[in-house]
Design a protein that fits this description.
By secondary structure, the chain is mainly α. The chain has one domain. It is 81% helix and 0% strand. It is built from 7 helices and no strands. Helix 2 packs parallel to helix 7 (136-159) and helix 4 (45-66) runs antiparallel to helix 7. The longest helix has 27 residues, at 73-99. The chain is globular.
């Protein structure tokens, strides 16, 4: 089976991932408006909202890139690699800022290291698609799943009013 055909078989997954990430991203904005007073008082809601929105934005744009009609692996590879480079940089910058808040190590791993590693996997998947390597599609799906999971956890913490774990 060619990679173009394999991409077409994943379209239902990416349609579902696009919808789920868009809905959850909307919940982040609802959660931020609910806790607007807390964020104005300097509590760490802003950082958590940014982390949640970012983690939910990636599956949205990755899924949209994978829904390009006619399954064009080279175009999708360029888009995925660009997203990975930006995500790699953004995750690193967010990590450095969050370290100033002195979060617990588990928070650093779950909120920053896991998404950062997912971007490395996305870059590998982009390279795999450029080389028309069909198993790269499983890597892309894994990255979408990881970011949906991390973003959902952050959105959940935001909606419940939980601050990121800090010392």
């Amino acid at each position: 089976m060619q990679v173009e055909d394999a991409i077409g078989q994943w379209s239902d997954f990416y349609v579902a991932a696009t919808g789920a990430s868009a809905v959850l991203l909307g919940l982040v904005f609802v959660g931020l408006s609910i806790h607007f007073d807390r964020s104005r008082r300097g509590l760490p809601v802003r950082g958590l909202a940014i982390e949640a929105a970012t983690s939910l934005f990636y599956p949205l744009i990755i899924s949209l890139a994978m829904l390009i009609p006619e399954g064009r692996p080279q175009a999708q590879a360029v888009l995925l690699t660009t997203i990975a480079v930006f995500g790699f940089w953004a995750s690193g910058a967010a990590f450095l800022e969050a370290r100033r808040r002195r979060p617990q190590p588990i928070a650093l791993v779950l909120r920053f290291l896991v998404p950062w590693l997912a971007m490395v996997v996305l870059a590998v998947a982009g390279l795999g698609l450029a080389l028309t390597w069909a198993p790269a599609l499983w890597l892309v799906a894994a990255v979408v799943f990881v970011h949906l999971t991390v973003g959902t956890q952050n959105a959940w913490d935001l909606l419940l009013g939980a601050a990121p774990p800090e010392r």
